[in-house]
Specification:
The chain is mainly α. It has helices spanning 3-33, 40-58, 65-79, 95-112, 114-120, 125-134.
Length: 144
């Protein structure tokens, strides 16, 4: 093997190893950062309401253009057939979607306010409270 071939292979192996370590770190972060009181089944039950919320927010002309652009990018990511963590991996396969949606909602509320989230939410008050918990927001608390 020539020196150039060796350099190419070592760079490819290093890049693959780095990507594998990054992926493993992401899996660990998703597992550690998951909300304790909200299970995957609960998060999946909220999915239709959350997608409807994102679509309504993305088409709200009263929100800043940058916020709406981020929401459209988030919807495009959710529609893609591949993810950062493949969905066939139990539990954490869908966790990357939850984390990305949570970060997106947090950014929207930071720029548009909690009122925009409450105005466009069509699910139950408990569902909105769960979405706020996942996104790390101080939102409405469910009535008990």
């Amino acid at each position: 093997m020539t020196r150039m071939d060796w350099s190419w292979w070592s760079m490819a192996v290093g890049l693959a190893g780095g990507l594998l370590l990054l992926w493993a770190g992401l899996l660990v972060a998703l597992w550690v950062g998951r909300p304790d009181d909200l299970g995957v089944r609960d998060a999946l039950r909220l999915l239709p309401d959350v997608i409807h919320l994102l679509r309504r927010l993305a088409t709200d002309s009263t929100l800043p253009r940058g916020v709406r652009l981020r929401l459209w990018l988030l919807l495009a990511y959710l529609a893609m057939p591949f993810d950062l963590v493949p969905d066939f991996i139990p539990v954490i396969g869908y966790a990357d979607d939850v984390v990305i949606v949570a970060a997106g909602l947090r950014a929207v509320v930071r720029h548009a306010g909690m009122g925009a989230l409450e105005r466009h939410w069509r699910g139950t008050p408990e569902g909105l409270a769960a979405v706020c918990r996942v996104a790390g927001l101080r939102g409405p608390q469910p009535q008990r």
